[in-house]
Amino acid sequence: MAAELTAPELIAKHRPTLDQALEAIRTRAYWSPHPEHPKAYGEDGSLDAAAGKAAFDALLGNRLDLTDQPGVDDWVGEEVSPYGIELGVTYPHADLDVLLPAMRAGQRGWRDAGAELRAMVCLEILKRISDRTHQFAHAVMHTSGQAFMMAFQAGGPHAQDRGLEAVAYAYAEQVRTPGTAEWTKPQGKRDPLALAKTFTPVPRGIGLVIGCNTFPTWNGYPGLFASLATGNAVLVKPHPRAVLPLALTVRIARDVLAESGFDANLVALAAERPGEGIAKTLALRPEIKIIDYTGSTAFGDWLEANARQAQVYTEKAGVNTVIVHSTDDYQGMLSNLAFSLSLYSGQMCTTPQNLLIPRDGISTDQGPRTFDEVTADLARAVDGLLGDDARANALLGAIVNPDVKARLEAAAGLGEVALASREVTNPEFPDAVVRTPVIVKLDGAKPDDEAAYMSECFGPVSFAVAVDSVTDAAELLRRTVREKGAMTVGAYTTDAGVEETIQEVCLEESAQLSLNLTGGVYVNQTAAFSDFHGSGGNPAANAALTDGAFVANRFRVVEVRREA
Amino acid sequence: MAAELTAPELIAKHRPTLDQALEAIRTRAYWSPHPEHPKAYGEDGSLDAAAGKAAFDALLGNRLDLTDQPGVDDWVGEEVSPYGIELGVTYPHADLDVLLPAMRAGQRGWRDAGAELRAMVCLEILKRISDRTHQFAHAVMHTSGQAFMMAFQAGGPHAQDRGLEAVAYAYAEQVRTPGTAEWTKPQGKRDPLALAKTFTPVPRGIGLVIGCNTFPTWNGYPGLFASLATGNAVLVKPHPRAVLPLALTVRIARDVLAESGFDANLVALAAERPGEGIAKTLALRPEIKIIDYTGSTAFGDWLEANARQAQVYTEKAGVNTVIVHSTDDYQGMLSNLAFSLSLYSGQMCTTPQNLLIPRDGISTDQGPRTFDEVTADLARAVDGLLGDDARANALLGAIVNPDVKARLEAAAGLGEVALASREVTNPEFPDAVVRTPVIVKLDGAKPDDEAAYMSECFGPVSFAVAVDSVTDAAELLRRTVREKGAMTVGAYTTDAGVEETIQEVCLEESAQLSLNLTGGVYVNQTAAFSDFHGSGGNPAANAALTDGAFVANRFRVVEVRREA
């Protein structure tokens, strides 16, 4: 079958975007080719809001067919939106002994395509995903529980950015070694030794992407595109509660691969029956050579210890800290923190959990504030931010699953409640579980409180922890990052020495630090092409999104040399 | 203490060399700043042959003091040269609970020096080592058993090249991310969001280099310099029979670090008592975050499974294959193979072991040759190459240890001997154990023979394995690489289809292939800056020397961002 999308067409269409991405990861200045505004879509073949919603609605209650994916032995799927509606979508269930061998059949052609053409095909996949951003937004919203606007942006353009960033790193890494070299070594008066060499990036095998419930695309795309762009086939195993966004992704990838003349089975879906737990089975299959995982520490640690045949990239749990020492913009600080605690009901791996505040209080542009005043002011700031139900719904989204709700309810018993969680009604989705964050006061000097603040309490739960001094805060930060890991650290201080102390802890413990954020950038948000997501150097994650280490070991370079 | 070597001086002296190295790893053309010829040394502060020999002799029977290395609790060392002389050198034995904390003390200063200055200090270390190449040549000769000229070249300039290559990759990897970035995101009619960001490469901790007996410097330098250049401290644990070359290296590194204003304890030596086995203890210490190991598969696998707190880079055992199918230069092929089998008595991880030859014979420019004729002709070629004892000694060196000798002696019982090993007398070192290679005929179709050719028989032992066809040879090659690993693969064929088949096996199984070598380049030799040593994609090694993957995970990048 002749390719419908030829290599020259793909290169003409996408090479400029790749070049801009390559420039962006070098300068780390702001850049994105994916519009954030919903109204930017609707022309040049992209779906506008109405068409995207209609495309999403058309999926509900139906089989999501992945044309020709081999080894289908059942149809599975029981997704229920955190907003209360049953999606009713079913997906092909795979006989792995049929599917995995089929995924290897196209690997030679994909390898021989070379790094540039692979990047172009990946960019075409991302472009088609981008065109359907409105459809994806609903799919992410109704699996993660994110509010629509967040699902649109984080699940759409920001996720696509992270995918493109991975393609750029993968391409750059593969072309560091030239395709050919002439090697001529002088031998004094004798003839030189001369060799002709070829260098070929070769894939490791099949990459397995194990998706998460809260950010199926944002956390799934880096591994998917890093593995695919380096020549591997990719099997996507979504979280059982968030299959739809990744199934749509797989369908688009298969279409583009086939239209470009490659084997569609280079990307496939592994949906599972309830309780089937196929991640464990898949992770130990000899065909699986790369694993990308986002989720619990327990399973991440298990993967690292047991999936020894694979390169394993994990993002696990962590405990994020903000040290509050002093500020010259108290209101800005409170607003910024209130937003960070509220966004998506704190269901982000980057949401601050422990707010370390000196028990003697802090200095601000509005005069000194005691520990109790700071916590009360923060509680008021959250209340103010979420006082209007429509705005609260737009920020909070829905509680993603009953475990989060149970943790939230239990948190109030851990200490004195500075801010109680309240229920918010969502008129559009009355069955949605919507809750505002709880803030609980703990004492860093009380051993009884340590169990609470030294464990990840994923969800809209934060602890205002009283510490004896900022030195104690820095030491508690160090211990927290070292023992529990952290995706983010924040700090507020106007004191250069304190800033230096906190920065040194972050450098020594490998944690990403945001200082004195009071405006429209939040500690829990990172931007592709500029910010690293995680460091890969503390227990929260063994890799960063995205850097050289994230891509360099997904392929190997095979050299063939002969006399020239 | 003011630094005796200032940063501007170091940069002026070494930056041009670094730039050339960076260019070389991009083009992979021939390049080396380290002369191969012994007569090139003796000017500009380097030791000539006599001075190098005298400097080596001065070490014998004495303590090798590492000024101020902390925690010395004993003096140890029982090295006996494979050439029969007792070195009598003793080395400081370390109390790890004193030494390891001391090694961390200087890490902040080393981190803050930045990637460029670290590279410059590494290049100064390499320059001082280069100046003492003649001394190192004797140290390598009398620990590895390599003949002088090989010890000089492989243990001197070639090892220094590999160290410099690692520095170049480490530098390039660290500067992929800029030190600072301004990030400005448009917000429509509102003010843009603006952040100032800093990015700092931070070390993982202490790197442990576990040296080997046969190539203490060549296999030790890549990991040592890759870890040091990325900001880590490095603890060198030499093989108990090959301490001297690495102890000299550590002494020079400590001198240069101190003279450059850094803590000498950033590089330290861990010598051990006989049978102490400190590698296992060290590998599990929490301070050790990186391990570079060359040696047995059993211990390499143990490290990978157990040293979970560390990034582990291993080069283990493998079974190297040469497929002999056809040639248009029969004599060149025989000469080339004879040299490869003889060099350093086959005690290289890259020496061919299994020569797969169709039982129906091969076609050559001198007409067809049967299996028996090829093996007999190869035996004659080896005999001719080693017929003169002086030349034999210069090529073979000495058997490095009794295990190799025992394997050599047992090999003759594995099948029909095509070439018997013989003893060679070394008039200069009468106690040296010098042996020519043995070639044993095996049958690829006999299950009884499989145990022999499917195991690594490290030393001067090769198997001429009769196979039914070149297709069978390719399949046996595939199985060997997949199950046992391979550092090198060679092939001789004039048939484009056969070449394609063998090349495809190597691409699929990640093995480095040398085709039709008949001149002065040998399958068991690789050149830094151009050839990869191993692929990191088959069981013989989990890393290649040197590529991006070898350096990218030795450090992490910590970002600090603040509002601009």
Characterization of this structure:
With 564 residues, the first copy, chain A, is an alpha/beta fold. Helices cover 41% and strands 17% of the residues of chain A. Chain A contains 19 helices and 17 strands. Chain A has helices spanning 7-27, 49-59, 96-105, 107-131, 133-144, 148-155, 157-174, 221-229, 244-259, 278-283, 297-306, 330-342, 371-386, 389-396, 402-411, 447-453, 470-484, 496-509, 548-552; strands spanning 72-76, 91-94, 180-187, 190-203, 206-210, 233-237, 267-269, 288-294, 311-315, 321-324, 354-358, 416-419, 438-443, 461-467, 489-492, 513-515, 555-563. A seven-stranded mixed beta sheet of chain A has the order 12-13-14-11-10-15-16. A five-stranded parallel beta sheet of chain A has the order 7-6-5-8-9, with helices on both faces. In chain A, helix 12 links the parallel strand 10 (321-324) and strand 11 (354-358). Chain A is globular. The model of chain A has no long low-confidence stretch (mean pLDDT 97). The interface between A and B is large, with 67 and 67 residues. Strand 16 (513-515) of chain A pairs parallel with strand 19 (555-563) of chain B.
What is the topology?
Two copies of one chain form a homodimer.
Chain A lengths: L6 H21 L21 H11 L12 E5 L14 E4 L1 H10 L1 H25 L1 H12 L3 H8 L1 H18 L5 E8 L2 E14 L2 E5 L10 H9 L3 E5 L6 H16 L7 E3 L8 H6 L4 E7 L2 H10 L4 E5 L5 E4 L5 H13 L11 E5 L12 H16 L2 H8 L5 H10 L4 E4 L18 E6 L3 H7 L7 E7 L2 H15 L4 E4 L3 H14 L3 E3 L32 H5 L2 E9 L1
Parallel strand pairs in A: 5-6, 5-8, 6-7, 8-9, 10-11, 10-15, 11-14, 13-14, 15-16
Antiparallel strand pairs in A: 1-2, 3-4, 4-17, 12-13
Helix pairs in contact in A: 1-4, 1-7, 2-5, 4-7, 4-9, 5-6, 6-7, 7-8, 12-13, 17-18
